[in-house]
Amino acid sequence: YGVAQCVRTVSAGGCRDCLMVAYGNVEGCPPGAEGRAVDAGCFMRYSDSAFFPANQTLDLAPFLTSGDILGVTELRGPTKFHYKDLKAATRNFSDENKLGEGGFGDVYKGILKNGTIVAVKKLAIGTKRVREDFESEVKLISNVHHRNLVRLIGCCNKGPDLLLVYEYMANSSLDKFSFGEKQGTLNWRQRFDIIVGMARGLAYLHDEFHVRIIHRDIKASNILLDDNFQPKIADFGLARLLPGDQSHLSTKFAGTLGYTAPEYAIHGQLSEKVDTYSYGVVVLEIISGRKSNDTKLEPLTQYLLEWAWKLYEEGMLMDLVDDTLDPDEYKAEEVIKVIEIALLCTQSAVVSRPTMSEVVVLLLSKARIELHPTRPTFIDATSRVRGDPSTSTASSSASNATVSVSQLSAR
């Protein structure tokens, strides 16, 4: 028995390409009795038993076209931890166990009683309203399951701090490998897989989960790497815990200088294309091995996005490629294609940017595709701000605790 499906927003060609990728992913499943492949825009499944009862005679086609509900998913909720257990796991939240300062608060390495290594985030916000909404919001986020999204294991809301427990990523974050102390250790295939994995994770948040989630702060430090250097997006889905009115998409700015789409940074206009823009900037960082805004460089090349557009117009995109990459590991046309996709994502016109589902299809398509990105009339104004591009800003009066957040909007 088998079934293959594409979402309605994917073109016929995109559906075909997506299903071919899904087919390749399930090829290794036999002789298993069940195999499934979920990608951005399509779904494929096979089984040695029927999907429906033997007496099933209902024709699903009319319901598929009319958009009726075919099923209901039960939200299970996260595991509840005791505060004293997480305090002991992190050695009383010691500085030696501190992994970093992510969105909403500090993150600590913890070892549970059963030996499982986890990452524990101590939220820096704990108002009465936040505590009231905490359990329902965390229940939603804990049901987001995708191989390219950091998994929320559980939480604790019974102690002096609100705590979130995530799966632990041994290889830390992408920024360490793109332009940090481990720069130059990733080969082209690893970088390409990270680029594709990021796109898949965002496509799931935007189009495949039953509630649309807009991240709003995609950057290299929010992309974690597992043991196999597969990317997992962190810090998504907690925007509604922020103080203030969150009933509209444009009520509060949360982003990072150098990564933020101009319509969001300047006008507060929020859509999933904000994540598309930031994704494009991160892709350029991965390929070039440098920050989006590096004040140590000469003015001509200081702003990565502006420099990339200049090289594109001059037909010299290969000058953007990281010198530490072995030229024998990649084909120039493949690298140029990925750079052009990144530039498509950073166009100033929101409607001109592809969706993340479309980005996945573009990246994986073997067909030759003519891409014609249009240079923005101006480059992201936030990149012109002097200072550390890793600094996130939520609002002029807000603290750093309100960064790296996401936005949920009902479908």
TrEMBL record:
Q: Indicate, by first and last residue, each region the UniProt record lists as having compositional bias (Low complexity).
A: 390-411
- Annotated spans, Disordered: 380-411
Q: Which Gene3D superfamilies did the record assign?
A: Gnk2 domain, C-X8-C-X2-C motif, Phosphorylase Kinase, domain 1, Transferase(Phosphotransferase) domain 1
Respond yes or no to whether keyword Repeat is given for this record: yes
List, alphabetically, the PROSITE patterns matched.
GNK2 (PS51473), PROTEIN_KINASE_ATP (PS00107), PROTEIN_KINASE_DOM (PS50011), PROTEIN_KINASE_ST (PS00108)
Where do the Protein kinase domain residues begin and end? 93-375
Family membership: Belongs to the protein kinase superfamily.
Q: Which gene encodes it?
A: CRK2_2
Matching entries from CDD domains are given as: Gnk2-like (cd23509), STKc_IRAK (cd14066)
Species annotation: Anthurium amnicola
InterPro entries noted in UniProt: CR_Ser/Thr_kinase, GNK2, GNK2_sf, Kinase-like_dom_sf, Prot_kinase_dom, Protein_kinase_ATP_BS, Ser-Thr/Tyr_kinase_cat_dom, Ser/Thr_kinase_AS
Q: What is this protein called?
A: Cysteine-rich receptor-like protein kinase 2
Q: What is the lineage of its organism?
A: Eukaryota, Viridiplantae, Streptophyta, Embryophyta, Tracheophyta
